[in-house]
Write a structure and sequence with these properties.
Elements: H1 2-32, H2 42-66, H3 82-110, H4 114-125, H5 127-156, H6 160-178, H7 183-201, H8 205-220, H9 229-246
Length: 257
Amino acid sequence: MYLLLALGITLGVVFVGGATAGFIAGFIDGFNGDKVGTTSSMTYMVGVGSVFIIVLCGILNWVFLKLDFASYTIGRIPSIPKSVRWKVLLGTILVMTGFAIMSHPLFSKDMSDMFMADSYVWMHEHLIFSILVLAVIEATANLVIYGAILREVLEWKHRPWQVILVYSCIMSLISFFSEASSFPIVTIAIAQFEGWMYEYTRSVIPIIVGDVAFWIVLLCLVGVPASGWFLLIGALVAGAGAHLALNPMEPYKPLED
C-alpha cells in the first residue's frame, strides 16, 4: 500500500510538472520569437526539475508523516551508549564513502549518455545546491522505503536475513534498468548495508547521513581519472566502515521471532 501510494503521488507530480515545464518553455520560446525547444539549457532543466522534486518530496513527507505511516524518529539510538552512536555514525559515513569511491570507475566507464554526463558535470559545478536537493530526495526516499515499507515488512514477518536479501535484489534490478549497467554491483551492497543498519537502529537518520556522504564524495570525484585502484580502495574503506558501524550494534539488535 505504501509503495502504491508513493508511486501514485510521484506519477501525478511528474505528469503535472512535465506539462507545466513544457508550457513554460514553450511560452518563453514564443515570447522571444525562438523556435520551440530553444529553452532547454541544463540550468533551466535542472532548476525546473529541482522545483518539482522539492514539491514532490514535500507532498510525500506531508502524507507519510501526517498519516503516521512513517517518521524521522531516532529509533533505538537513545538506548545506545553515546560512544557506540558515534561509531555507528562514523562507520556509516565511511561505508558510503567507500561505496562512492567504488562507484566512480564503474560510473565513468558506463556513463555514455551525454545528457546524464552533462547533468553530473553540472551538479559537480554547483555542488552545494546539488547536495541540498539530493539530501531532500534521500531523506524522503529513505522515509518511504525504510521508515514505512521495510519497517512494515519487518514488523509483519521479522525475518531480516530473508527480507533484506529480497529487498537488495529488488533494488539491484531497479538499478540495472535505470542506471549504468555496473551500478547494481554496488547497489546490492548498499541496500544490504542500509537494510541491516535500519534493522539494528530502526532509524532512517544514519542512512540519510550516509547517503548524503555518498553523493558528496561521488560528485567531488567527477572529472577525476578513474582506475581499478578505486575499487580496491573503496572496498577496503567500506569494509572497515561496516565493521565499525555494525559490530558495536550487535548486542542491541532485535532477536528473530
